[in-house]
Amino acid sequence: MLKHIKHIKGIHPGFVLERELRKRKLGKGRFAISVEEFPQTLVAITKGKRKMNAALSLRIEKALGLEEGYFMVLQAYHDIHCEKHKAQKQESPDLSVLRPVLFWDTPIEKIQWQRQKKAVIRRVFERGNDAEKQEIERFYGPSLVQKILKEIKLHESSL
Question: Are residues 80 and 119 in the same domain?
Answer without folding.
Answer: no
